[in-house]
Amino acid sequence: MRIALGVEYAGTAFCGWQYQPHARTVQDELQKAVSKVANHEIEVFAAGRTDTGVHALNQVVHFDTPSIRELRGWLLGINANLPKDVAVTWVRQVDDEFNARFTAIKRSYRYLILNRLSRSAVHHQRMWWHHHPLDIGRMQAAATQLVGRHDFSAFRASECQAKSPVKTLDKIEISKQHDCIAVDVEARSFLHHMVRNLVGVMAAIGDGSKPVEWAGEVLRSADRSRGGITAPPEGLYLVDVRYPEQYSLPTVSGFPVLW
Hints:
Blueprint: E1 2-9, H1 26-38, E2 45-46, E3 55-64, H2 71-80, E4 86-94, E5 106-114, E6 128-129, H3 136-144, E7 148-151, E8 166-177, E9 180-187, H4 194-206, H5 214-221, E10 236-242
Helix pairs in contact: 1-2, 3-4
């Protein structure tokens, strides 16, 4: 049978999602836990890779097994064998056509910025501390230029393995509560470092270092060297992955920690 899982993790102490032989990764920890419950070696496949330090609220994975367990047994058994910074939040049996990566129709990320003069002792591994004041009106005006189907080469990491730099960005929304700014982004798929590079450009526009029009200029250049900094990983969250309605998989509708 094929099983799908929703996985939540704090990425701070991990070298990303993907298995590496001499590093701590989320995939490795999850595979070891699932294998113990299944009583045989398991390989899990994710909706998308996350980098070192990046978090997830609803990473979706699947695996195949001949072992028969109740869904509750999978959930409790896997969690009992996971470290505290990884947890399975739901378990569903799916058909053999389901693939956590290729069946996904939309992925959503949220990037969090702590925008105040003083650093945070609590959120220093959960948000990007940006002490220069940011104007979210300017940031939203910049973001609007990036929505739609474009060549995002200027926002693509040099090690990106995607076959094409052309992506369709469905949404970028900037919101603020008190001294926290959230950048919410949705698309079917993203390039490597694309969200963090988008945030880097918007932050430079938000603090007045660059004009609003610069976002469009960077996009049209198709040149990564023309862009801004890559925002640090600690502010980035894979919030949700959505699938066709036939699967009725649980989703995350918001970000419960903040709003």
